[in-house]
Amino acid sequence: MTDLPQPRRFSQRLALVLAVILVVVGMLNTMPEIAGLQDWARDVTGIKFFRVSSFPPEYLYPPIFVLMMVIVALDASIYRAWRDTNPSRAWLGALLDGGLVFAAVLAAVGFWVEIDSVCLVDQLTGERARLIKEAAERSANVIPGMSFDAEVPSCQARFGVWIIPLLFTIITLFFLYNIRVWGAPLVAVASVVVIYTVATALIWVFDLSTNNFLLTKLGADGGDALAAAIQKSTNIFITPDGFMGRFMDIIVNQVFPYVILGALFGSSAGGTSLIKLAVRMTRNLRGGPAHAAIVSSAMFGTITGGPVTNVLSTGRLTIPMMRRNGFSPQFAGGVEAAASSGGQIMPPVMGVAAFVLVALTAVPYTKVITAAFLPAVCFFFSIFLAVMFQARREKVQAMREVPDDLVMVRQDWLNLIIICVPILTILCLLLGSKDAIGSGFLASILPSGVTQTLVNGTGDAVSAGWWAVAVLLPLLFLDPETRAAPSKVLVSVAEGGILISRLFLLLFAVSIISAFLNESGLTGELTRSVTAWLENATQITLFGVEVEIVGGVYLMLALVCAMLCSILLGMGMPTVPAYVNVALLLGPLLANLGVSFFTANMFVFYFAVASAITPPVAIAAFAAASITRTEPMRTSIAALRVGVVMFTIPFVFAWYPELLLIEEAVTITDAAGKRSLIEGYTGVVDWPALAFLGARLVIALYLLASALARFDLIAISKFESMLRIAVAVLILWKSPVIMWIGLCIALLVLGRQIIAMRQSSTRAA
């Protein structure tokens, strides 16, 4: 029996080794253009078209796909789990582990067989070469003396009808491991989408219904149901919506260096030093430890991009600090959960979901982080206010003196370099100008090759992340513990590779949702139906009051619908699938109602992030509750109260898209496909108007935070809390008359609070 743990250790070590190989290949693929390197490699190898980076996706994706699934099978082995808990079923676990790998191999082979740029079987039989030769001869004979690029011939040898059972076998096995690694909610949603698509196809084949929601796009491909099904199944292998399409591109070509960066940060000593610095900065504030948690979680969370990871990393220090200073355990856990969730909306990195947002909206990453800046500032400002009012309510005093275990020592200042330099690298490269670097001061003092390399990496998010990793690796050795055990760095790199493999498993389920929704036509039908209903509806009844559906009521109904769907579909899920599920369904609908496509996606993105603190399945709050050892639901309610602005800010920038600072936020596409600015906007930021809007927003956030805490300078009654919430809404109303009425009432409410506090102080004296 003593030998039983050995296979477990071997399989996990093998997973780490393969993960390191994955990271090396991925980092080579995303390596920015280094001046002279490509030419040098071609001279050394003698291969004319040899590449050292940016490998062709049709040849890179399949082996990477198989490698990631082998890592998942080793890391999340069902055989290993069942061998200890239920030995009689261990053989079935081994069969499933092997099945996952075999399914990945079949998927890779299927991709190569079906995609026209490869045509694997045709390549092996020589048919491919013959077809290309014939196509070249035809193109040469179009006009004598002139040659044209030959068309790419279609694959002759395909899987045919076998592509259908192959596809569903792959889906079944991958969904099973998704449940094991990520839980059931995402697979439940994906399964419903798959079943709906198949069911509507069968309804069309057997002509069982004429309801638009029970029909399918298959019918548009003619009467041959089998041929249509084969084509649609093939699409899921080879099109951008398939599992080797845009979501594979996001993992392999866009987010890869940032995942590795987050893994290295997570194991570095910089996180603890960052918390110590935050405590030092906030020690004179009444909510000191809680404010320190906000600062450290925002900075750490923007790199890791995962709320649960952030809670478990920073929360182990910040939550005990808050409790030691007098905050209740539920509130301490709620603050950490809300701040850690907010790390996903905090520039400059924002985590994996931000790169998905870039891919779905086709808006450059630099513009995305620009658009995210003001909403993120508003969110963290509101948490600061919530902590301030709670500290007043619970009579929490400032620490003044930093506890001995949190005093900054010389090594902590060195450790901060580990955190700050990579972030500065990202900011400088993202926000820098190619022209300024190429012709500025740096160009005059640096060798031309170095200058050209900097120019190549400037303005590109992937290059910025890659150089941040390159800078971070040597900086990690500033920590004496890392110098004493250098293998820690290699293990962190491997853990990053395992995380990437798990992320792709997650995105596989998302890609299946995207592909099947596209093939079913549900998104378009839902958009048409809801838009038609809104156009024909004249009024709705709320609490017995009839409200005319005119003007902005259309938009508000759609926004509320999108909010509810985001929260419901996001329960228990990571942010990426929670965002993608709703964006695919409701993004087009919101874009049809006067909101820009980018703003609609940002709206859904915020609520996907908020799902991490939304009861009843608030995963970030539950992670915090595991540290506070309190009832998870009470912690999630506290997190919801602290982070409520995450639910209100999206409505604000939906009505005031100028808060997002970019032209794409105020640009809409009409029914004819023509792009135009929303009425009243010029595409240029009106800074005075934006400053006035910002001032209104600050007042509204102050009123909202104090109302939820039921405390300002002194305690607030229930009536005044409700009044403050109503006034906050009035202040942000688009009508100038209503807005000024709200501002006047706000001055009266705040003035009354000052008078009441002075009277209370006089009586106490």
Automatic annotation (TrEMBL):
This protein's record includes keyword Membrane: yes
Key words of the record: Cell inner membrane, Cell membrane, Membrane, Transmembrane, Transmembrane helix, Transport
Entry superkingdom: Bacteria
Residue span, TRAP C4-dicarboxylate transport system permease DctM subunit domain: 171-663
Lipid bilayer topology: Multi-pass membrane protein
Subcellular location, record wording: Cell inner membrane
Cross-referenced Pfam families: DctM
UniProt signal peptide: none
Predominant place of localization: membrane
GO cellular component: plasma membrane
GO MF entries: transmembrane transporter activity
Transmembrane segments: 60-79, 91-113, 159-179, 186-206, 255-279, 349-366, 372-392, 413-432, 461-478, 499-517, 549-571, 578-598, 604-625, 637-656, 689-711, 723-750
Matches recorded under InterPro entries: DctM, TRAP_DctM-Dct_fused
Known function: Part of the tripartite ATP-independent periplasmic (TRAP) transport system.
Name of the featured protein: TRAP transporter 4TM/12TM fusion protein
Organism: Sulfitobacter noctilucicola
Species classification: Bacteria, Pseudomonadati, Pseudomonadota, Alphaproteobacteria, Rhodobacterales
